[in-house]
Amino acid sequence: MCPRQATLAPPQLCSLMGLTSEKTTTKTNQERNSRVVKSREKSRHFSEKAQPPRVLLLYGTDGYRPSHEIKTFLESHRIPHRTTSLVKGQLLLGEKTNSSSYSQHLGEISILIIVSHFQASLVEPYLELCRARHLSLVWAVLPYPHSQTPKPHFSRLHASSVAPDAIVGMTLSPRYPFFYGRPGATGGGIPHGKNWTTFSLETSGDSHVTNPGSHVTNSGPLPVGDLNAANAWSNMGDGEPGTKNGTNGYRVLVEVRVKTGETDFTDVPVVLEDMGGRDGVRKIVMGAPVRFWLSHLMLLESVHQLSDGRLVREGRERMVMVDIDDIFLAPEGRRMRVDDVQAVLRAQAKLRQMVPGFTFNAGFVGGYYNSGALMEEKLGNQELVRNAEQLWWFDHTYKHHQPHSMSPRQLRTSMELNRQFAKDHGIPALVHHYAVSPHHSGVYPVHPPLYDSWRQIWNVSVTSTEEYPDLRPDHMRRGFKHRGISVLPRQTCRLFTHTFLYSHFPGGRNQLVSLAAGGEVFLTLLRTPVSIFMTHTPNYCCDRLALTLFPALFKFTSRWTQLQLSYPGPLAMADRYFSLYPEDTSPLWTSPCSNKRHREILPAWFNCSQLPQLLILGPQKSGTTALHTFLSLHPQVQTNRQSELHYEEVQFFSDDTLYQRGIQWYMEQFPYPPSPSVPPTNSSLPSSPPPPPTLLFEKSATYFVHPQAPQRAKAVLPQAQLVVILADPSHRAYSWYQHQRAHSDPTAVRFSFSEVIRASPSSPPHLSSLSHHCLTPGHYHQHISHWLEYYDHSQLLLIDGDELVERPAAVMDQLLEFLRLPFHPFQNILQYDSRKGFYCVVESNRRKKCLGKSKGRSYPPMTDEDQQWLSSYYAPHNAQLKELLTRLGRTPPRWLI
């Protein structure tokens, strides 16, 4: 353990190994872990769920909590994965490794990661699987308590627990072909508060354990290249052909120097690669504590090595930018003085030796220039302006007002004043097309006037925020593009406006350095190819905490890794980010109403009750328009305004162009719900009862089949109730074809229904497309299952399409019960019209109001041959639907029985 007080232990002792003090961080870590677990569920829709898993993460009895660290690693690097226990994993994959269920569940998995104690019986059942499917294995070994001294073995390897106070240093092998780690990197110090697992090898022909480590009798740090053990291990082959490049035996990645006496030490492997010469499975075994930074680096290295670089997108390049928010704005006593400004410029020059092009990025608030009573701080302001050409600058609004709290005109005025200030003082703020909003207001949740004003006044192309999709977990932050501006994820580094003295930082200077030397900030840099760190003016005055943190970060990164650090500027960083993650280009809007931080930066007029509570999903030509019309008759129900594009349908979640307009546009499609009346406080009259709550709903029949609609809807409307109409799929397909003919679709006019449904992938594209739109909406099991990946089945009502046609009042009673709305006499206001052939609404004047001529139109009946063909086509889909309904405890529609 590294003491908190700098007087008891020099900070270098902690910085070399990235130690954090457990006593000062245990509570903080527990609180953070709790937040992460809660936020991970919120951010589930941002995971790589749509992709087949490439890594299977398995944990043993004591490996559940450590496996979360590895899950975070996989999520950070966007590696599709699946997580389960070792016991459930065998059930999941099948009883036998060669069974068909393995192929069904493994998909494209190429690596297994196991988190468990060093126990052969836990891993051996998976070796046959690895051999059969040519999988590789990473084994994160959990240490036994130090009081236990077993030496369990596996594939001639033996494991021992080593207490952290016995470890005096570690070295990355100078001979291993690291991609991320730096060969020969070495350092001393106490590495972590938990036991480590070291490995030894049983020599061929002997039953005893030997340790081919080097014994040394000095207490100094390991010299680079002093890896006698690694030399010995590389020659410890099994006498069998190796699995890669003809290599046998083991390769050491990392050794630790362990104290064995007063003056004696031995170097033993703690991370090594088994080339698979004995069992045919290439594997990397790691004995460092899972939470220690070395394990994160070695996990990255392992996945890269075992997948030949295919699973990790980021490569070695890491772009870094450090923003200094609130320039000219800080409480008195926390602003930069002349010597602070000079210290920033000196540090910047030194940092450029490690990060080419590095320049601090200053966010200025022109309205506070030279404010305050302290002359030293006014001179500091002037020193910043005098050296303006040596820094990069960005707009932070004139008076630090939050954009969401201003009118569009006020917002433009604020930006124009700040721009004029920059012009008057020679600040080159227009060069880099970058800006940041105070408190991230208006960036996300998006405030359209902010984006428009940025483009018009500052020609902004790039901004950043920590709020998309949420502040926590930080490794799940994402970027997106909106209104011509690239939004990049912003990172925190534990430096806030109140941390300007070491005594104000929890744990003091040692703890600050440890964040950079293997701690949270280093891990952020390791896993983030484009890092924008947020700091504030007070972090550069007084004890200048930022000028301690970032030099330590870049030195540690250079010492232990081969990451290539650079600062090319915001535009290049945005290009790099979206070239790596093109899937982030389109945002996934989330509900600001369920996020406290987001609610705090919403405009005053934003009303969460203006979002719908019910979605009628479709499918098309199943009776959704009739259901929409009938439900709108209820006095406590309101629907969306008429759409110029799609008539009564909004189609926000299925139309990519409309979706890009954002949640504010979506809300504007609905009426503003009435607010409860509040009587005057001095009134003696009895108050009138508040109006009943209004349920808002929309019907967009395109939602049912759209691949992104469930994900998008869940993110904005997590509590919404859903309705799907299950019409006979054969009749629905025929109705859709006739609908297209009635609208003069050239393909439907040219080709018969028989030709359309029998079209093949080799048919002309327009014919295949029409066939697809006729047939695939009837794959009810597929589409319902997709929606149930995001919504609980209790939120879904399935309506029998035949029942809606024949007994609409009974269906409406069922719907009202589902929605928990009061009874409405639909049996009195829905009446069958023999001329139209369906039920119509009886208005107050006793006249019937029926749906338009496009509904219930007459057309020739389907031929028996086509009906028979469709019955055969839909048979397997209907069987799957029936199985799903049985599993959900739902009554199947009559046409399915």
UniProtKB/TrEMBL annotation:
Domain Heparan sulphate-N-deacetylase deacetylase: 317-522
Active site residues of this protein: 621 (for sulfotransferase activity)
Keyword field: Disulfide bond, Glycoprotein, Hydrolase, Multifunctional enzyme, Transferase
Biased composition (Basic and acidic residues): 29-45
All copies of domain Sulfotransferase, residue ranges: 612-875
Residues reported in the UniProt entry to bind 3'-phosphoadenylyl sulfate: 735, 839, 855-859
Region forming the signal peptide: none
Start and end residues of each stretch annotated as Disordered: 23-45
EC number from the UniProt entry: 2.8.2.8
The protein's annotated pathway: Glycan metabolism; heparin biosynthesis; Glycan metabolism; heparan sulfate biosynthesis
Stored InterPro entries: Heparan_SO4_deacetylase_dom, NST/OST, P-loop_NTPase, Sulfotransferase_dom
Cystine bridges: 840-850
Pfam families, per the entry: HSNSD-CE, Sulfotransfer_1
GO cellular component: Golgi membrane
Molecular function GO terms recorded: deacetylase activity; heparan sulfate N-sulfotransferase activity; hydrolase activity
Source superkingdom: Eukaryota
Similarity field: Belongs to the sulfotransferase 1 family. NDST subfamily.
UniProt name for this protein: [heparan sulfate]-glucosamine N-sulfotransferase
Organism: Geodia barretti
